[in-house]
Amino acid sequence: MTKARQERFRARRIKANARERSRMHGLNNALDNLRRVMPCYSKTQKLSKIETLRLARNYIWALSEVLENGQSTESHGFVEMLCKGLSQPTSNLVAGCLQLGPTPLILNKLEDKCGGQGGGDSVGGHPLSYPSPGLPSPPYGSLEASHVLHMKGFKAPAFDNPSPNECSSGTPPYDGPLTPPLSISSNFALKQEPSPHESERNYTPHPGQHAHYLSAHHFPTNTAGSLPGGAQSHPIFQASRYELPLDVAFESFTPSHLVTRLFTSTEST
DNA sequence: TAGGCCATCTGGTCCT
DNA sequence: AGGACCAGATGGCCTA
To answer: Cα A124 to the chain's mean position, in Å?
Structure first.
């Protein structure tokens, strides 16, 4: 290879690098646009790329449930769908953004009812059904529907004999690794507790077994932010570890609002 | 210090 | 030949 050819090669490589950088910047811009239409958007605490994609997938799925089945965006199922497969911090963030109110949450055992976990197609073959082949599973705690929102002191209902017809929404099968169950106590703080069932793929609390608790100090904090409905005084916002960014978007989650926001966002891009 | 996340560089492949 | 796309490697930054 002559020196001139080497220089041509080098120049070509530099150009290719610049193009690649530009391409990745475009990709990141698109990802930022996607972040902006997610239920919780914050400039200061950005969702990671993978979490953005997961949340987007869940969001589309949840919204399609709203449109098709009239499910309420304020229902627990909606929150569960949004948080499915997300990391614990992201789940906390989403839950915080959704302003889980003072009313205790009772878990909809969609997944257990449907036997969605561990393979098996979702009931009804939802177009956004899980699993997503090739989508890596989160290597961390996941706020999964079968794990989430156990009330402190809440005794798990008998999920052992679910009716096969009970699940109309087609909860997608879980595509993440087994993680210790996450729970929400009456103050909705999230915490991952060690579980003797960690090695089991399908974790189901025994009837009467208290599922895992949550501590307020593990829930998002918004010490200075203004939350609607006086939520800032709620224990969930006195947390330490997962801080809710002050600029996080607290949205009104009515279906019309969501759809409008999606369309306007699409038009603006 | 380990692990997660990210930006960047790089070489390979496919297409025009 | 050159551009777009992709995936692996690498190093930096941050946090627990």
So the answer is: 22
Q: Are A175 and A135 in contact (CB under 8 A)?
A: yes
Strand B footprint at Cβ < 7 Å? A 13-14, 16-18, 20-21, 24-25, 28, 46, 48-51, 87, 139-140
Q: Which residue has the tokens 């919780």?
A: A40
User: In this structure, what are the phi and psi dihedrals at residue A212, rounded to the nearest 5 degrees?
Assistant: -80, 145
CB A214 within 8 A of CB A152: yes
Nucleotides of chain C touched by protein CB (<7 A) = 2-7, 16
According to the per-residue pLDDT averaged within each range, which of A130-144, A159-173, A234-248 is highest? Answer: A234-248
pTM of the model: 0.52
d(CA A145, CA A170): 12
Give me the count of residues in chain A: 269
- pLDDT tens profile A21-63: 888 988 888 888 888 888 777 777 788 888 899 999 899 989 9
Where along chain A do its domains lie?
3-98
